[in-house]
């Protein structure tokens, strides 16, 4: 699941620093409450979130129906863009020459981020839980979709759009 809408989404800003004041807006809270209602009858064993507070905020709303542990996993973090608190359009312009491999301002490339998320999926495969909820970010969700749904080339990852609090159900074979 992608987190609910945030103040930085509204402002069109990048964020990968967990100490920044990025939080769910009223719309984001409502999105998370709707998702919580839709997921209320799913028997979750735990919820995994990134270091960024918006994922925990979303998870806490969903968890009202589950009361399961919420755990942080660093590999779920949003892409480290190198454009903290700067406009997303500036980031996209800076990587336009090589969207898959460009590393700007000490950030990671899209392919670096993909490898980090794939490492998380490998870790996930080793977990004993039956049903987990992962609350992450659009860039992270793109990798999940490409991995589980297949047929998506790396160059097409940015064509995948995931709405706030949109979720997918996948079965991971061990």
Distance between the termini: 21 Å
Low-confidence stretches: none
Roughly what percent helix?
25-40%
Looking at this structure, what is the CATH superfamily? Phosphoglycerate mutase-like
Count of helical regions: 6
Proper CATH architecture: 3-Layer(aba) Sandwich
Spatial strand arrangement across the major sheet? 2-1-3
Largest sheet: 3 strands, parallel
Q: How many β strands by DSSP?
A: 3
Q: Average pLDDT value?
A: 95
- Based on CA inertia axes, which overall geometry fits? globular
At a glance:
The chain is mainly alpha-helical. 37% of the residues lie in helices and 6% in strands. The protein has helices at residues 7-11, 26-39, 53-62, 88-95, 110-125, 138-149, and strands at residues 46-49, 70-72, 132-135.
How would you portray this structure in words?
With 174 residues, this protein is mainly alpha-helical. The chain has one domain (7-159): Phosphoglycerate mutase-like (Rossmann fold). The chain is built from six helices and three strands; from the N terminus they run H-H-E-H-E-H-H-E-H. It has a three-stranded parallel β-sheet. Strand 1 (46-49), helix 3 (53-62) and strand 2 (70-72) form a beta-alpha-beta unit. Helix 2 (26-39) packs across helix 3 (53-62) and helix 5 (110-125) crosses helix 6. It is globular and about 45 Å long.
